[in-house]
Amino acid sequence: MPVSPSATQDNKAANKKAPLGQTSPEKAKATKPPTSKSHLQKCFEKLGLLRDIDFALHLPLRYEDETKLTRLRDAREGDTVQFEAVVTNCEVTYRPRRQLLVTVEDGTDTCTLRFFSFYPSQQKALAVGNKVRVRGEIKCGMLGFTMMHPSFKAAGADLATALTPIYSTVAGMPQTYLRKAILSGLARADLSETFPSSMGASFNGQISLQPAYSLPEALSFLHHPNPDSVLATLEDRSHPAWQRLKMEELLAQQLSQLQAKRERAAMRAPALGLNSLQSTQCSLYAQLLERIPFQLTAAQERVCSEIAQDLMRAIPMHRLLQGDVGSGKTVVAALAAVRCIDAGWQCALMAPTEILAEQHFRKLIAWLEPLGICIAWLTGSQKTKERREALGKIASGEATLVIGTHAVIQAKVQFKNLALAIIDEQHRFGVAQRLALRDKMSDDGLEPHMLMMTATPIPRTLAMSYYADLDVSTIDELPPGRTPIVTKVISDARRDEVIERIRSQLAQGRQVYWVCPLIEESEALDLSNATATHEQLCAALGDLKVKTMAGQTQAVQVGLLHSRMPVADKKSVMAAFVEGAMQVLVSTTVIEVGVDVPNASLMVIEHAERFGLSQLHQLRGRVGRGAAASVCVLLYSTGDAPRLGDTARERLKAMAQSNDGFEIAKRDLEIRGPGEFLGARQSGAALLRFADLATDTELLNWARQLAPVMLDSHPELAQKHVERWLGSKANYLNA
After folding, report:
1. Structure pTM?
2. Does residue 137 share a domain with residue 53?
3. Are 139 and 73 members of one domain?
């Protein structure tokens, strides 16, 4: 029987002879060089199958019904059928390309099997006169029944007694071997009950659930369903066996989140408050409010108050600040930073890209330097001397605000007294990076306050599950004076019209973004690329003269920006566009976050059908930042297809119908699912593999109510449950 990689390694280690004078097997194992992993072990690791329970929870993607045979005359177009027949003809033809054509007959009709890729062994197995069992999708044509690349084997074997599971796998891991490994893991896994006996009781009289299946029964059934099972209930996960797994999964996640929240409540952080009314009036906070050239919205004031209350407590703040594109999160972050500095501590702000970090730096320099605040700048591209000076100021405490990219969390960066860490676009950072920033203060036995920001609004149900351990502040209104952005969905066939619209905008002194999904040509994806589009626009707009923001007349300047450019070149291009010396910027999605050019009034997004909704909304938010009417053009291409797919069409329709980031986020969640929506696959967050937040609200409410009861009354069961479902992933929930 196949075994899990971990079990295999343990057995190997146990069989090795211990070195002389050493009796402990653990020590012997520690001194031995690691043995190379087998190909199968590497495949299991890629699939995340490390423990017996991982194998047990690796559920089928779909099922095949190999429990019955169908006569050809009873088959219908599009049916997937299994039948036994005799080979009557087998030949290799070369028109229109090399292929193997096999004719089979079952006594009721004939069927042609077509193979474009085949081996001599397959030809031998399909020799004339052989009786075979064939399974595949039936197609009907002028020449009768056909099947493309069906599966086949010799006839006569016993029929399956249950539906055949089809699992997600990787190259080099055959389904047959994976099925045996999963069956073996399922038999060995500890599936003992972790739900308390009172789990079906109602909590606060609100909900009462009692599963129809135990965990072993549910898993056994889902791996090998009965032939008479309704496939629809298995595919849409509404079967009671699926309900049991969803309950287990949601409870594990809620338990882990609640554990993390309680652990955090036991930690200590510096209390950042002022002592008197007089000091409040003279504070940096009050001075900054006077300096900013606009009035805070009611939503901004409410959020600032929530953050201030958190900072005054000796418990580490762990707050998510969410708001739509352009809602004013930066000024809220700046006000939080000066509260920290007012109290005599340091603050760090970390952004995912150098462009965004530099924009924060420039904006905060303008606001805070006149107040006497020393700001340090840290990026990976800094010159050695500049970096050394910055590190010295941070270590001494002279620099009270540190802004940068991932460079902020490097080992050489030593803070004197870090009390507040602000992470912008938090979904773009991995969990380990967020943990590293938090650990910059661990030597003092204190935890810094954490403020995480995102411009991807998170629907309430998603926040309830994924961010149950977070306090969420929402800026739900935009600053006054913003002109709504008009969104147009246009076919790529009307590209010339779009270029004429660009000429019109440039003649009015406006600036334009043109976003492409690729930097250079790709053989895999037939998408317009940034370099080719840049050349095309240079040619199309080369004869146009425009006035710059400085009042000079010049030929239209078309810039190119992408992630592979040297840092100095990227800075130069962005500076020219921000200053108005460059009128058109052709870019990849590197400008998705953080670029603020009020004079830009037109955004063209090429191959918009390839982008996620939230990403389209982020890109659209780069225009409409001034008083001028702004337009976002979504250029789509159907390629060789007659029309757009349903998903792409729904996505573009949603963009045209709404400018509301929260509505967009809700639609995006429905289309992509929570893991992709949050970037959780990259961040290491615990994913919901089985539960659906859109439809399993009742189960989520039940899990949220049961979690504190289990932690308080059944801590051993709670720990066992979390370990079973999350394993090492639970460690990341502290981030």
Report:
1. 0.68
2. no
3. yes
